[in-house]
Amino acid sequence: MTLYEAVGGRETFALIAQTFYEGIASDEVLLPMYGGNDADLNAAAQRLQLFLEQYWGGPRDYEELRGHPRLRMRHMAYKIDRDARERWLKHMRNALDVTVKAGLVAPLYEAELWDYLERAATSLMNTNG
Ligand code: HEM
Question: Does a structural domain hold residue 128?
Answer without folding.
Answer: no
